[in-house]
Design a protein that fits this description.
This protein is α+β, with helices and mostly antiparallel strands and 199 residues long. The protein is globular, with a radius of gyration of 18 Å. α1 packs across α2. It contains four helices and nine strands.
């Protein structure tokens, strides 16, 4: 068993976030998403179309996050009529034979590596958090490029947190509407400060 399996990771859930069932493979996503949308929107008969649209988006979000196997994942939905504003995922990284010790510099190189779809160079800065020394990285990517070479910019704010020499945590928030960038970076900063690890 990896060393992090003996630890418990705590992170505050924002008021407008919906926890996605990424660790429970037996949860039926159709039923779950319908219930989650009803809780978020309400059961008023006039909001049926909104409930259906949000349920479809939540189902897709849960299925997408499940593929990456995070410790936890959240769909941030402050305004249900606009759907998911951002996705938040917390993932564990375990040291291996290639990288036997987790370091903040290793996390920086992992998170701040430019990619062929980088929209602009990533920006990184060291941080100190209750869960351990960390690096904060801002990045933006171009995704879903069409035949004309046009795509959608996805912004991200991530923290690599060295919780232990043998493992680390990555808090990763991604979104598309650029008008909310500052607010979503602030949300990520707040969440990073709430992360605690207990053994």
């Amino acid at each position: 068993m990896p060393e992090f399996a003996a630890s418990t990771v705590h992170m505050r859930v924002p008021r407008d976030a919906i926890a996605l069932p990424v660790r429970a493979a037996d949860v039926d996503l159709d039923a779950w998403s319908a219930e989650a949308a009803a809780r978020r929107v309400g059961t008023d008969g006039g909001r049926q179309r909104l409930r259906r649209a949000l349920a479809a988006e939540l189902r897709e979000a849960a299925a997408d996050s499940r593929e990456r196997g995070p410790v936890t994942a959240l769909s941030y939905v402050p305004e249900p009529r606009l759907g998911e504003l951002a996705r938040v995922e917390l993932t564990a990284l375990v040291a291996d034979a290639t990288h036997p010790t987790m370091t903040v510099d290793l996390l920086r190189r992992f998170l701040a590596a430019p990619t062929p779809v980088s929209y602009r160079p990533p920006e990184s800065e060291p941080r100190t958090l209750p869960a351990g020394p960390a690096v904060r990285v801002r990045h933006a990517y171009v995704q879903d490029v069409d035949a004309d070479g046009l795509g959608t910019v996805t912004e991200t704010c991530a923290y690599g947190i060295r919780a232990d020499p043998a493992w680390a945590l990555v808090l990763f928030t991604s979104w598309r509407p650029p008008a909310r960038t500052d607010a979503l970076c602030e949300l990520t900063d707040e969440l990073a400060r709430t992360i605690r690890v207990t053994v």
